[in-house]
Design a protein that fits this description.
Layout lengths: L1 H4 L14 H4 L3 H12 L5 H7 L11 E2 L7 E2 L21 H35 L11 H7 L8 E4 L2 E4 L2 H14 L16 H10 L6 H11 L8 H31 L5 E5 L9 E6 L3 H11 L2 H9 L5 E6 H11 L3 E3 L4 H6 L5 E4 L8 H6 L4 E4 L11 E3 L7 H15 L14 E5 L3 H13 L3 H8 L5 E5 L11 H12 L2 E5 L1 H9 L7 H5 L2 H10 L4 E3 L6 H14 L11 E5 L5 H12 L3 E4 L9 H15 L3 E3 L3 H19 L12 H8 L1
Parallel strand pairs: 6-7, 6-9, 7-8, 9-10, 10-11, 13-14, 13-16, 14-15, 16-17, 17-18
Antiparallel strand pairs: 1-2, 3-4, 5-12
Helix pairs in contact: 5-7, 5-9, 5-10, 5-24, 5-25, 6-10, 9-10, 10-23, 10-24, 11-13, 11-16, 19-26
Length: 677
């Protein structure tokens, strides 16, 4: 557009308040922040510099659950002495207020992930009944694998013999039982029994088995209404039910059904960062979290019809790029490269080369519309519950019954917009290679091959000390810290100390941008034990397992480790820990709580909205471990976080009796015969 070719800023009054180098460790991001400032385009980095967080809200002790508030309870200057004097108008204590706020974040996080799962289940229902021609079941093996967990028989008796049941009938029954998990009137979530038996029995004994997904969210919203539950321990008990309904319910169902319909991921090569965009191609950025539409956009953009149409309009082809977890979904199944993390979404438009940005739900900045006004970019919303008020935003509502038609309409719109680019396009050159697309099945294959795939190999290398332990590092970016710095510092410190990392979400994209998702990186960044394993198996030291709903893959991988034997009988026995160093979303609180309730030591960076209620904080940080085997912790410094995780891993190794590395001995024939005997 003409505006972007002028040298003067679009908004001369815009303040250049963000220091690009101080805002991000990524050179491409720094370059785009400078460009935005030169053009007078405000981004999240500038807004973060202008607006400071509320000191009391950040502590979790501001209550606005009724019209008598907000009631703000700052920490007393003398610490927790005089704690009884801190009350809201209704008499609610700091512990009650902090627990209610914490619970509502869990409820929102569970609702977001699980509503994603509901959408996937509804599309799967259409597929099972052949009501749509655009979607089909791509992985029948995965369907057969998950059917028993829904109590769906895969065999049927005919004339006294057991034979394979019709696959279409299996799909229909799985669809019905999956959708019922959101609102069935009695019973418990079926997937809970996928957990190790001691863990399931502990949940049952504690009375925290979720009944159905929707009920647990509604329960939290009711009990945190003014004048209902006023016992922080009881409130947190319901947090656990809702969080488990997320991790072992909605999220896990979403992951499984996406695999069935779109294909189970397997390792593939791709790239990451803003440099994946191409000046001579139509660039379409897909952003959000639900992959049902993005799957169709990938298919449409790769079709001969659309590619030829793009060439007719003067482009060499169509380049897709992802932002956030929709980006991770199309990465792990199709190799579509992520253009960036959560904090880079505005910057993809600032390149001047984004012909269309297509968004669905979650983590989408409303300010994208304001940035798009300064460029030629078409911003397209697609979900009925996620629209924007700005008049330059187009809304094309997705319908699974006309999915390809909708996708082609969007791709065509992007192609037609290619000619409207301004003269000054600036695409950063930075991009890095990555291997992504790992999952429970592919890890098993890589460890043992087609005929002897097993998690035993991983367990053996943990027992012999080559691998010190396992860390799940996940989560978003947060503009209150330096973009990607905590992610990268933490992961590098862990792999340097022989801790293998499983990653999802924006942490996975950040690690890809830093070059940590290639097998070759092991020689550079890992300790000798982990480097040896990675070289032998041919895997990166950081395994990208997908989007944020795919944290369920981490739970199931950990369960497979328990099943393989030698490392205890429960998730709490494993030399493992979890972390979200740059979290920002309510979904992260729900994820953290279901990992804690599953027995995992879980640390958050930045802050945690409980510090204003020291008694409640102590309950989360100390007492929960006695109840669930896992606990919360806070470590804003990523190196401190890594050391805490490693200390916990070492503690678990000692409890298992594997704290000393075994001496490697060349065995003669007599020794081998003695072993077999």
């Amino acid at each position: 557009m003409a505006e972007t070719t002028e040298k003067k800023p679009l908004n001369p009054k815009a303040e250049k308040v963000a220091d690009p180098v101080g805002a991000s460790i990524d050179v491409a991001t720094q370059q785009m922040i400078r460009r935005a400032q030169e053009l007078g385009v405000e981004t999240i980095f500038d807004r973060a510099a202008k607006m400071k967080p509320c000191n009391i809200g950040i502590q979790g002790t501001c209550c606005k659950n009724c019209a008598m508030g907000p009631c703000r309870l700052p920490l007393p200057k003398g610490g927790i002495e005089g704690e009884d004097e801190r009350k809201g108008l209704c008499g609610a204590t700091a512990n009650t207020i902090a627990a209610r706020n914490f619970a509502r974040q869990v409820a929102a996080g569970c609702a977001a992930h699980s509503d994603h799962g509901r959408t996937v289940a509804e599309v799967f229902m259409s597929v099972a009944h052949k009501e749509t021609e655009d979607y089909k079941i791509k992985d029948y093996n995965k369907l057969l694998a998950i059917a028993p967990h829904f109590d769906v028989d895969t065999k049927v008796e005919v004339d006294g013999e057991e034979v394979d049941r019709d696959l279409d009938e299996i799909a229909k029954e799985v669809a019905v039982k999956a959708l019922a998990e959101w609102g069935k009137p009695e019973g418990e979530l079926r997937y809970l029994k996928r957990a190790p038996k001691p863990l399931y029995e502990r949940w049952k004994k504690l009375g925290v088995l979720p009944r159905n997904i929707d009920r647990e969210v509604v329960d939290i919203m009711h009990r945190t209404h003014m004048g209902v539950d006023q016992d922080y321990k009881n409130i947190l008990k319901q947090c656990t039910r809702a969080a488990l309904a997320d991790g072992w319910g909605g999220s896990m169902i979403a992951t499984d059904l996406q695999d069935v319909m779109f294909g189970t991921p397997f390792p593939l090569q791709s790239e990451a960062n803003l440099g994946v965009m191409k000046q001579d191609h139509v660039n379409i950025i897909i952003h959000g979290h639900e992959p049902v539409l993005s799957e169709m956009i990938v298919a449409a953009a790769q079709s001969k019809e659309m590619v030829e149409y793009a060439q007719q309009k003067g482009a060499k082809g169509i380049q897709l790029g992802g932002i956030c977890c929709t980006g991770n979904e199309i990465l792990q199944r199709h190799g579509v490269p992520p253009a960036g993390t959560f904090l880079q979404q505005e910057l993809a438009i600032v390149t001047g080369a984004c012909d269309a940005m297509v968004v669905d739900v979650q983590c989408v900045f409303q300010n994208l519309a304001n940035v798009a006004k300064c460029f030629h970019t078409k911003l397209i919303t697609t979900h009925p519950m996620a629209r924007m008020e700005q008049d330059n935003v187009l809304h094309i509502e997705f319908d699974e019954h006309h999915a390809m038609e909708d996708a082609k309409r969007i791709v065509t719109m992007a192609i037609d917009n290619f000619k409207n680019r301004g003269a000054e396009v600036m695409i950063p050159s930075q991009k890095a290679a990555q291997i992504a697309g790992f999952g429970v099945e592919s890890i098993e294959y890589h460890l043992g091959g087609t005929f002897r795939g097993s998690y035993y190999t991983l367990n053996d290398n943990i027992i012999n000390g080559r691998i010190r332990g396992v860390a799940g590092v996940v989560g978003c970016n947060n503009a209150r810290g330096r973009h990607n710095e905590a992610h990268i510092d933490l992961v590098k410190e862990l792999i340097k100390n022989d801790v293998i990392v499983l990653t999802t979400g924006c942490n996975g994209i950040a690690c890809a941008m830093e070059g940590l998702l290639t097998p070759e990186s092991a020689k550079v960044f890992c300790g000798p034990g982990l480097a040896e394993v990675c070289e032998t198996v041919g895997i990166p030291p950081v395994l990208h397992l997908g989007s944020c709903v795919d944290n369920s893959r981490i739970l199931l991988a950990a369960t497979e480790v328990v099943k393989a034997g030698g490392l205890g009988n429960d998730l709490q026995d494993l030399p493992a820990a979890g972390a979200a160093p740059e979290w920002m979303s309510e979904k992260a609180i729900s994820i953290g709580q279901y990992f804690v309730a599953s027995g995992v030591y879980t640390l958050f960076g930045v802050n945690l909205p409980v510090t204003g209620a020291p008694v409640f904080q102590k309950y989360l940080f100390e007492e929960l471990e006695k109840i669930y085997g896992g606990k919360w912790d806070l470590a804003p410094d990523p190196i401190v976080m890594a050391r805490k995780m490693i200390a916990h891993i070492d503690k678990k190794r000692k409890e298992l009796g594997i704290d000393k590395a075994r001496e490697r001995v060349l065995m003669d024939m007599a020794s081998r015969q003695a072993l077999e005997a």
